[in-house]
Amino acid sequence: MKSRNKRLLRAEVVLLILFSALILCSLIFDDGEELNRSAGAGWTNADDLAHAKFAILTGSAYDPVIRERFPEAERVYVYTWSDETMLVTLGKADALIREKSSISSMQEEFPDLVPMKEPVCELVARWITPKTEKGRKISREVDSFIADLQKDDPEILRRIYEKWENPEMAPDHVDQYPMTGEYQGKIKIVSCLDWQPVCYQNGSNACGYDMELVARFCAWAGYEPVYEFVDIQSALAGFEAGKYDLFAYGSEYTEEAAEKYYFTVPILEEPVYPVVRWDNYAFAEGPAKEASNKTGIGRLLDRLWSSIEKNFIREDRWKMILSGLKVTVLLSVFSAVLGTVLGALICAMRMSPRVYPEAFARIYIKVLQGTPIVMLLMILYYIVFGKSNLSAFWVCVLGFSLDFSAYASEIFRSNIEAVPPGQFRAAKALGFKPVHAFTRVVLPQAMIHIVPVYMGQLISTVKLTSVAGYISVEDLTRVSDIIRSRTYEAFFPLIFTAVIYFLVASLLTSVLKLLEKRIDPMQRPRRVKGVVARDSGENRQHPEPQPAPEQ
Fold this sequence. Notes:
The chain has 18 helices and 14 strands. It has helices spanning about 1-30, 60-70, 80-90, 100-110, 135-150, 155-165, 210-220, 230-240, 255-260, 295-315, 315-350, 355-370, 375-385, 390-415, 420-430, 435-465, 475-485, 490-520; strands at about 55, 75-80, 95-100, 115, 120-130, 185-190, 200, 205, 225-230, 245-250, 260-265, 270-275, 525-530, 530-535.
């Protein structure tokens, strides 16, 4: 048995090395040749994109623009800016639209993407507030603040924007402004840290044009800001639940949206251009920057170092990775412990001879097993605990624990019922109390089969924690998305994050394997009065024969 385990371990290592080598070879033999212009579409202006396929960030201000400007175009929705640009780079979409300032940042990572010369529209971005009395009041205060800001200097908004336009020259934090207005209490502000230079994350600081305007507004109006950073869908869900007071993120005005939200005066106005691959644009002179002359291993090492520098070293982003990993581990541990306790309780109710406890357990299991974990988290955070001060982290712990307990209870029940009932009756016949008969006879036999299935469910829960970012918890996946929104690099952060999840899952598997060996009598060594029995039957130690007693 031991020799077979060693062979299996060696085989796993060999296969992992081969798999890693295959990925590296795909990068080494990427020669980096420029796109073939003769095979391009030859577009000359935006009218040529009438039937093109557009990549769109879900919920962004550009969605209604594309719907109005290109009504017959096909739309492909994604969740991050980097995914949007990757689709166009790989040819899975034809175009995207982007304001002028963020195009230069995008081209640092995607030099094959170029803007057309003529803009398709003017982005008129506004902030929104909920359709409540407080929301109307805040919306009017923002309007008054913008008017007061521009009264002495009409170009001040442009100058603030230029301050953040170049990330290399921009500050690494937003200044604190002294409060000039009468104190009015706290204001809950939500935004998205994925739009450079409007609102993005620099190290542990929220930076950008919108963030500075928010700081100035709160000081002017007398509010104490309380920030939360989520994606657009979660922000809008929070507005529906009344969790936020102000969405400080560029939103395009539409009649349909105006029925649900109050829009402020324009916060940002900037021309928007279609962005396509340079080989499809007839007037493009080539990529934004020249391709490297290196090939093979030299090119691979350059790309690897560039990715490491941008994703980990620059702005101390490795600290964000460690912080996200800590959150992921804590979420997994707390959810597993609480979920196991709840699962045992629900299992006891499910096996109860009484009708109502069993009925409750059945409904509990069916509801939780039939509810997607993302929906469960959003219901808990925005509806059940929408008005409470419970943090998003503990809402996540509760949500994952409830989900884990539903599956764990069925794992416990099915394996306990698999133990022959005669074992329990025999233990009682030998004088065991019912509790002792269960804990000392039935449960040890069931645990042998429970642990392997429980281990698989625990690993699934660890991977499920990757959706915690939907309610603003900065776990490992959420941090990776924030870094991708800054670097516009899709592959390296994704692969690195996947490797970390693999290592965490492997560590948990190893720990549970040790537990499995401890509880399985067929795998652990047995010691009986000086005799050590091993799996293979080898190296048994026998006591030396004792001389017979004298007669």
